[in-house]
Amino acid sequence: MSTLRFHALKAVHNRQPLQIKEQDKRSSIFGANVFNEKTMRQYLTKDALNAVVDAVQSGAKIDRTIADHISTGMKEWALTKGATHYTHWFQPLTGATAEKHDAFFETIGNGEAIERFGGGQLVQQEPDASSFPSGGIRNTFEARGYTAWDPTSPAFIYGTTLCIPTVFVAYTGEALDYKTPLLRALQAVDTAAVAVCKYFDKNVRKVNASLGWEQEYFLIDSALAMSRPDIVLTGRTLLGHAPAKGQQLDDHYFGTIPNRAMAYMRDLEFECMRLGIPVKTRHNEVAPNQFELAPIFDEANLAVDHNSLLMDVMDKVAERHHFKVLFHEKPFAGVNGSGKHNNWSLSTNTGVNLLSPGKTPMSNLQFLTFFINTIKAVREYEELLRASIASASNDHRLGANEAPPAIMSVFIGEQLTRVLDELENVTDGKLSPQEKTDLKLNVVGKIPDVLLDNTDRNRTSPFAFTGNKFEFRAVGSSANCANSMTVLNSIVAKQLTDFKDEVDALISKKDMKKDDAIFNVLREYIKTSKAILFEGNGYDVLWEKEAKKRGLSNNKTTPEALKVKVSDKTVSLFQDLGVMNKVESEARFEIEMEEYVMRIQIEGRVLGDIARNHVVPTAVRYQNMLIENVKGLKEIYEKDFRAFAKEQLNLIEEISGHIDGINANVTKMIAARKQANAIDSIEKRAKSYCNEVKSMFDPIRYHCDKLELLVDDEIWPLTKYRELLFTK
Ligand code: ADP
Ligand code: MG
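Above: the input record for the complex with adenosine-5'-diphosphate. Below: its predicted structure, written as C-alpha cells.
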C-alpha cells in the first residue's frame, strides 16, 4: 500500500472514541451560554429587558442609552462565563459565518485597564468588509459596510467569545448578507399573514414563520480526508471507483450508530445544548458514514442562525474527534447525497399553527386558506424557488440521477387532494345556505380526522405537505437556509397579500359574505395551481415529460436556474415587498454566478492536478513494473514469451490508452477554461464553465477510475472509496 494511504489508515486504527461524560441533565444546561430572557432578567434593568422584548416582538428600535445598559449587563454576564472577547457575528454571502474578535480589555491610562463594552460596540461595528462578496454594490456606491445588532437572535458565548448576531449592510443600505433580506421577508409574511388571519380571529397580532431543518452530513476520519487533495480543497471526491459494496444492502440506514460517531454526536449535542440549539434527533442516513441531526423547530430567523452556527460547531467538535465533516451535497459519486430538509410553517401569537387543521370548521377554513395560498405561491414562483437552492454542489442532486428532481412540485397526499377536488366544485358566486352547511360539515369539517391517516409520505417530492407543515426537501446540505427561507416567505407574503385584495374586492364589489368570498377565491386558486400538484414518483422519467407539458420549469444546472433571479417578475416581487431592491437582486445574482464559476474552476484545477500528478505517474510506474516483468519473461522464454506475457501486454496497452485519455481530456479542459475565463459576461462565463469545462470532468474521471481498478493497490496513492466510506 502507498505510504500515504498506509499512514492514514494506520492513524484511524489507533483512534479511540473520546469518552464523553454527561453529568448534567441536558435540560439543565440548555441555553447556558445564551443571553436569553431568563439571563437578561438577572443582568438587565427592567427597562432594558423590556426594550429587548419589544424589539423582538414588534421590531421596536432600541435607543442608545438603553443600549448602554444592555451592553453593560451583557458584558457582566459574559465575564462570569469566562469570555474575554466579543464579536459581531454575521453571515456574509460567502456561505460561511464571519467574526472579528475584539477584547473587552481596554487601557485607561496610568498603566491601568478595565473590561469595557459600550452600547455603541453592541449596536454597530465596521468590519473591514472589502473582501466579502458584494456583487459590485460597494464599487458602485463606494460604500463601506457595517454590522448592526439583530436583537431578535440572542447573543451567545462560543469558546471565550461573546457573539452578537448582526446584519451586514452597506452604508447606502443595501444588504451584504443572508440575514437582512430574510428579516425583511419575515416581516413581509408577518404583515400579510396577520391581515388574512383577521378574517378568522381578530386577536391575531403577529405571525411567525417557523423552520425546522434536518442536517445531513458525512463523517470521515480526518487522516483519510487529509490524504485526498480533492476532499481538502473541494469538499468532495472528484474521482474514485465505486466500492464493491455500496449502500445496496441498506444496512446502515437507521442502524446502530458506530462508537466513534456516537461519541462525536454526544459531544456535539452537548455544545449545541449550551448554545441553545435544541437538537433532538440523530440517526444514520442511507449511505455508509452518513448521518442526520435535527432540532426542534424554531422561529425562522433564529433557526437559520442556529443552523449556520451548528455547521461551524460541527467542524470544530469534529477536530477533537479526528473527523472531517463533509457538508457537500454529493461527496461520493454513486452514493446517496446529503440534503437539508426545511420544514416550514406559520404560527400566530395566539398559538395557532396555520398549517395545522383545527377543531372547528372555521379554523379549518383558515387552515385551507393558508394551505392553498402556499400551493398557489409555489405554483406562481416555482422557478424562483428552484433558484433559491441552486449551487454547483446541489446540481449533483437536483436533476442528476438523484432525488429530488430539479422540477418543483407539491405533494399533498390523497385525502387533501380529495378535499381540494370538492372545493373546486364550489358554486361560482354566492353559496346557498345548504351548500355552505354541506361544505362545513362534510369537507372542511372532516379534515382533522382525515389527516390522522395522511401517512403516505412521498419521499420523492421536493415540496411535501407533512400533516402540519410543508417540507422543502430540495435544499442542499451545505446551503445557508436563509436563501430558501427568504424566497419561500416572500412568495407566500405576496400571495397572501393578493388573496386579501381579491377577497376584499368580492366582499365590497360583489356584496358577498366573507365565507363566500374566501371559498370563491380559493376555488379559483385550486384551478390555477393544479399544474404544481404531483403525487407520483418524482424520479420517474415520465414525470419530466409530464412536467414539461404542464409548463413547469426544469432547470438542471445552476447557470440556468439562477437567471430567474433577475427577471422582471422576481425583481418586482422583492421590490414590492421591501425585501430587496433591484440593485440587491442583481448583486446577488452576480455573486452566485461568480461563486458557481469559482467552484467549477477550482474543481477543474484540482481534478487536472490529481489526474496528471497522482494518477498518471502511478499508472506509468505500474506500467514500468509490467514492462520489467515482460522483459524478464522474454529473457526466460525467449521467442515463446508472448504466450506467458499476453495479459501483461494487454494491460500495458490498456494503461497507455487511459493515460492518453486523461492527458487529452485534461488538455481540452484547460483550453476550455482559458476560453471561458476570457468571457466578460458573468452569465455567459458561467454557462461556458458549465457546458465546456464541467463536462470534461466525467471523461477524465472515467479513465482515472479505470486505472484505479488496473493498477496495483500497493502503489495507488489515493485513499479509496471503500476506505473512506467503511472505516469507522
Ligand atoms: P422526517 O421528515 O424525518 O420524517 P418529522 O416529520 O418527524 O421528520 O419532522 C421533521 C422536522 O420537522 C423536525 O425537525 C421538526 O422540528 C420539524 N417541525 C415540526 N413541526 C414544525 C413546524 N410547525 N414548523 C417547522 N418545522 C416543524
Ligand atoms: Mg424530513
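Notes for the reader.
The first helix runs from residue 3 to 13.
The first strand starts at residue 85 and ends at 89.
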